[in-house]
Amino acid sequence: MVAYFFLVQVANNASYMFRVSIPLQMIFRAGSMIPSLLLGVLILKKKYSKAKYVSVMLVTMGIAMCTIASANQEVKHVHDDKEPSKDPETEAQNVFNDLLLWTLGLLMLTVALFLTAGMGIIQEKTYSEFGKHPKESLFYNHFLPLPGFIFLASDISHHVSLFNQTTPVSVGLGFSIPQMWLFLIGNLLTQYICIRSVFILTTECSALSVTLVVTLRKFVSLILSIFYFHNPFTHLHWIGTALTFVGVILFTEMVHVPGLMPPKKGVKSD
How many CA atoms lie within 13 A of 123 on its CB side? Predict the structure, then answer.
């Protein structure tokens, strides 16, 4: 499980190298219920209500809309940043290369989604067999994979050099720290709080409740990312986002929909 967890995290972070914008990654990962549903049916032989399948359709439509909208923006954005080539064939090749790189990023995100869903199944079986121990699981999942970063040593060294070149920020007493190191410290602290809370939440709530909480957290991150980084967000993005999160709410059965969900206990159906 530790090796699998390391692979999932590397696959998730690898998508940043393929020009996939942060908002699109947030929306795309909000569809993590889709592979979970598929793997649950295929591997765990689970049966779901009609509402679950309708919600999957809504989430898929939402992600597809945002993907199409972002595809046009990503290619245009990258293409505008480059100096136009006087050769039409070279210009067309540059556009094709940008689109290919972006498509590889989406493929990486898709693979990461299914790997994450598989991780959930492994955790479910592990917890059912050995009991739920969130703190122990959190420690081993993050401590034991550390030697695996030896294979990423060159990339880590390169980014350490880039971090050291950022603008120094005074922290008092005559000391200053490069700006990116401060961002990294802040990221580590917030990530620890978030991940620790999720591991504990898995022992207190159902998997659907955890999925809803994590998805809402992603939505807040999405909004903050848009305003802070000034990422373009069109009307098509908003429609896709609305469909995605309506699907999430329907998936968790927060609102009872007759005909799509089984009757509530104590309520007689006609």
Answer: 23
Within 10 Å of residue 44's Cβ, how many Cβ atoms?
10
Nearest CA-CA partner of 246 in 96, 40, 65: 65
φ/ψ of 48, rounded to 5, equals -120, 155
| Residues 17-38 pLDDT 10s | 776 766 667 666 666 777 777 8
The residue with tokens 């620890």 is 192
Q: Output the CA–CA distances (angstroms, integers) from residue 227 to 194, 233, 237, in the order listed.
A: 21, 10, 14
pLDDT at residue 167 tops 80: yes
Residues 192-217 have pLDDT tens digits of 998 899 888 877 776 666 776 777 77
Distance CA 224, CA 91 (A): 35
| The residue type at 173 | L
CA-to-CA distance for 124 and 117, rounded, in angstroms?
11
In angstroms, the CA 192 to CA 172 distance is 26
For β-strands 168-172 and 175-178, DSSP reports them as antiparallel
Write the secondary structure of the chain as one string of H (helix), E (strand) and C (coil): CHHHHHHHHHHHHHHHHHCCCHHHHHHHHHHHHHHHHHHHHHCCCCCCCHHHHHHHHHHHHHHHHHHHHHHHHHHHHHHHHCCCCCCHHHHHHHHHHHHHHHHHHHHHHHHHHHHHHHHHHHHHHHHHHHCCCHHHHHHHHHHCCHHHHHHHHHHHHHHHHHHHCCCEEEEECCEEEEHHHHHHHHHHHHHHHHHHHHHHHHHHCCHHHHHHHHHHHHHHHHHHHHHHHCCCCCHHHHHHHHHHHHHHHHHCCCCCCECCECCCCCCCCC
Q: What is the pLDDT of residue 76?
A: 52
